[in-house]
Amino acid sequence: MQALYQWDLSGSDLAAIEVQFHEDEDFSNVDRDYFHELLHQVPARLDEVEAAFQSYLDRPVAELDPVERAVLRMAGYELLVRIDVPYRVVINEAVNLAKKFGAEQAHKYINGVLDQAARRLRPVEHPQGAGGSGLLKRK
Predict the structure, then answer these.
(1) Which of 5, 15, 57, 92 is the residue whose CA sits 20 to 30 A from 22?
(2) Do the domain assignments include residue 48?
(3) What is the CATH number of the domain that holds 92?
(4) Which residues contact 102 (CB under 8 A, 6 or more apart)?
(5) Whole domain around residue 58: which residue ranges?
(6) Which residues are CB-contacts of 122 (< 8 A; sequence separation ≥ 6)?
(7) How far is CA 3 from the centre of its chain?
């Protein structure tokens, strides 16, 4: 999430951000392949990722707090593409990141947006899912 936040605010090269994180952060408990996938695929599929949650926002994506935007982008990608990760895990991790890095009530907003998105994106998995949407495209 922090690397996506940095990319969003600085516009830095993704490879340079990745090298910086590998050098500056403790990666002993990090899945390096997953980190690489998120850092490179979220920006590569940004329109699709933002479309996954945009209709559940109360303002345009560009007006979101940068931390909230990074968390929603990461979780939106996971809901869309990483169906091996249960939607509840995606939401729980996003809420925890928002609690740690976001504004005071950001976690509640993140939870509400992602729960609605999960209903549509993971209708078989979500108990309140609203039928198949055809959005589970993988590239």
Answers:
(1) 92
(2) yes
(3) 1.10.940.10
(4) 65, 67, 68, 71, 110
(5) 2-121
(6) 79, 83, 87, 129, 136
(7) 12
